Amino acid sequence: MMNQLLAFPEEIEDFKQLQELLLYGNQIQSLTPNINKLTRLRILGLSGNSISRLPVEISELSRLQTLALSANQVKELPPEIGNLSSLIELRLNGNGLAVLPPEIGQLSKLHRLQLRRNRISVLPSEIGFLLDLESLDLRGNELRSLPPTIGRLTQLTRLDLRERNSDCAFPSEQPGPPTLAPAEPLN
What we know:
By secondary structure, the chain is largely without helices or strands. The protein has strands spanning 20-22, 43-45, 66-68, 89-91, 112-114, 135-137, 158-160.
């Protein structure tokens, strides 16, 4: 049986020491912009609600390590998602996402990315910047191909492309690691 929380509790912002906030399986439709007041938050569990969009202010949670948003109605991620510099795990299963913003590549500490049962047909090439990524779950999407940059994910131990990704092609050429432009010679 689902809980009956219909709105994100505004009073939650008063809990300045809060590190884990688990609101799974409610009927919450939106998050308060004041979520940015929870500066110590490490885990935010919001799976199984009715959330359709994320406030930009969520990007100010600099200590956030786990963001669980599976089984909601999130159709797009704000570009500011890339500011979550401590994020290790991002769960977005079953949301109807069609695209990921290029800023997803800024989540340099990300180890686990769960995107199963969405509507993603193309991954941004910036996915190749997730050099610590160990697990990428793309099961049940509509992928036609993987970007060549996927070859940069040398820490990847689990790649799941089951269900509806049967036509997904692997790139014929795998790029090497990202490189910087050569430095100008010193005179």
